[in-house]
């Protein structure tokens, strides 16, 4: 017997809420880098951590595309897994030494760890019945 929340299966509602929230966070984070910080500052932040300047552009594009795919519910498990190395890299190489709280100088790693936990949850849950992948891709990577 399935459990329901307001007439909807709980697992599908949970997946919908998690993927829309995570996708929105990725897009907002990328747009912050572009429109608030600006490309020169974003590139300076990347190079200050030892990363190559050219890595800034594809990572921002990946955040936007990955976020959009999650919101739409396309290849949710695959997209979540593919975005995890970026989060792990940001924790290990950029924010890990700054402490737990994200508002610490240089930004801590709590926010990134939370996004990682949500990503793992989506790998476990999949996109759910309210995702486009059900109609477009079937069960593949959903």
Entry keywords:
mainly alpha; two-stranded antiparallel sheet; 67% helix; 6 helices; 142 residues; 2 strands
Arithmetic mean of pLDDT: 88
Shape label: globular
N-to-C order of helices and strands: EEHHHHHH
Strand content: under 5%
Biggest sheet, open or closed, and with what strands and sense?
A: 2 strands, antiparallel
Number of strands: 2
Give the CA-CA distance, first to last residue: 23 Å
Helicity level, as a percent range?
A: 55-70%
Radius of gyration: 16 Å
Q: Looking across the biggest beta sheet, what order are the strands in? A: 1-2
- Which structural class fits the helix and strand makeup? mainly alpha
**Number of helices, counting only DSSP H or I runs of 4 residues or more:** 6
Outline the low-pLDDT stretches.
Answer: none
Care to describe what's here?
- The chain has 142 residues and is mainly α.
- The chain has helices at residues 10-37, 39-48, 56-72, 76-95, 110-125, 133-136, and strands at residues 4-5, 8-9.
- Strands 1-2 form a two-stranded antiparallel ribbon.
- Strand 1 and strand 2 form a beta hairpin.
- The mean pLDDT is 88.
């Amino acid at each position: 017997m399935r459990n329901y929340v307001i007439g909807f299966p709980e697992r599908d509602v949970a997946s919908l809420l998690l993927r829309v929230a995570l996708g929105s966070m990725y897009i907002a984070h990328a747009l912050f880098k572009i429109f608030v910080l600006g490309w020169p500052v974003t590139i300076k932040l990347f190079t200050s951590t030892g990363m190559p300047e050219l890595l800034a552009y594809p990572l921002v594009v990946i955040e936007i595309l990955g976020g959009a795919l999650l919101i739409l519910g396309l290849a949710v498990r695959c997209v979540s897994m593919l975005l995890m190395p970026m989060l792990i890299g940001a924790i290990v190489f950029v924010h890990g030494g700054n402490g737990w709280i994200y508002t610490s100088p240089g930004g801590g790693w709590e926010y990134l760890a939370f996004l990682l936990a949500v990503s793992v949850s989506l790998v476990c849950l999949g996109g759910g019945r309210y995702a486009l992948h059900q109609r477009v891709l079937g069960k593949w990577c959903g």
